[in-house]
Amino acid sequence: MYELLYKINNPTDLKKLNLLEKQKLAKEIREYLLEIVSKNGGHLASNLGVVELTIALHSIFNCPEDKIIWDVGHQSYVHKILTGRRKKMKTLRKMGGISGFPKTSESEYDNFDTGHSSTSISVALGMARARDLLKQNNKVIAVIGDGSLTGGMATEALNDAGSSKTNIIVILNDNEMSISKNVGGIPALLTKIRIKKTYTRSNNCIKRFFNKVPIIGKPIVNLAHIVKRSIKQAVIPNMYFEDIGFTYLGPVDGHNIQELENIFYKSQNIEGPILIHVITKKGKGYNLAEENPDKFHGISSFDIKTGKTKSVKVKDYSKQFGEKLVNLASKDEKIVAVTAAMKDGTGLKEFANKFPNRFFDVGIAEQHAVRINCWNVCIRFKTCICSIFFIFTKRV
Ligand SMILES: Cc1ncc(C[n+]2csc(CCOP(=O)(O)OP(=O)(O)O)c2C)c(N)n1
Whose Cα sits closest to atom 16 in ligand 1? Predict the structure, then answer.
């Protein structure tokens, strides 16, 4: 069943595989992830989404010399499987078992003990600067999701890294999801960038067509070339990343190993900060998770066929909190709820359904979530603090 997987004990073994074998390995890894998480519980959808991305990263870069920083770290299972911890993954969420997040004490392939989101670019930039001071030349790669990119710290780090001229690679794993659907202006920007592929394709088709038209064809193409940059500015907002100092590469299909390897290979010869935009599907390869990525983000043990969780449902703290809040809010329309991308985790799902106009998901932005409440009256403030407080206590 796991014919190839059992032969991979480190990235060197992986590098020996050809493309077809890597594709087969991706399939086996997905089966293995399902087997483990359905028994033990864990973060499933995010890991299913980064299988090819992780294979391509470990095929092109040379870890542990090259440093990969996984933002949040909940998507590091595949990385663990490929870096000698395949068997240990069976102890996930067991007493004394393997961590579900990168742990420096666990492996030389893990570079930072994560958990909080939006930290990876800062960490990577620090490592890149230390490397430069030590006159070393390893690569430093931050892998950050589009959800985590909404966190303020990520923007602060992009701002610093963009002007630094330091060699650093930021891989943006864009699956359009945080735990729930991603929200705000940055996801909207990324959606616009995704149309680039369509734009480039149609642009080339038009060019080919006019080049064939006698006499007037070539001048039209030339004229188009002159205005191209301004059109590009208007149509392709990837200029945002370029304007703040990054070389932008992509968007690339995050489930195509060959394309990913090509772009990672290319990135090694570019100086300065690079942002590679990778499009992935959360829950990829397991229909139920593709359809309900939020349910399968973090899940307790479940039946693979039906997707039904096996644990007995108890009324936990967040459920109690959510119910009470709905109850209070039905009687007092001044009550609002603010969450930092944790609608489900903080028990606010029902509130959001019942009072959509009084529900605010502000993205992974806890500081901002607390502060937008500055017009507060007492009860509003309490509501907000409960929600934020809960994030910090039951975050992962
Ligand atoms: C500061 C902080 N707030 C909230 C969380 C809870 N959390 C864990 S993963 C996640 C969503 C991350 O989305 P994204 O970065 O897009 O990764 P994906 O799971 O979609 O691959 C959230 C909100 C956290 N880990 N840290």
Answer: 147
Where are the alpha helices (H) located in 110-195, listed in sequence order? 120-133, 152-162, 185-194
- pTM of the full predicted structure? 0.87
Q: How far is the CA of 32 from the centre of ligand 1 (A)?
A: 23
Residue 380's pLDDT is: 43
CA nearest ligand 1 atom 19, residue: 46
The residue whose CB lies within 8 Å of the most ligand 1 atoms, and thus the one to mutate among 77, 119, 179, 281, is: 179
pLDDT tens for residues 337-377?
A: 999 999 988 999 999 999 999 999 999 999 999 888 655 44
Closest protein CA for atom 8 of ligand 1: 396
CB 363 within 8 A of CB 182: yes
Sequence-distant (6+) residues with CB within 8 A of 278 are 53, 171, 172, 173, 174, 250, 251, 252, 254, 260
All structural domains of the chain, each given as residue ranges with its CATH number in brackets, are: 5-195+236-291 (3.40.50.970), 317-394 (3.40.50.970)
- pLDDT value at 321 more than 90: yes
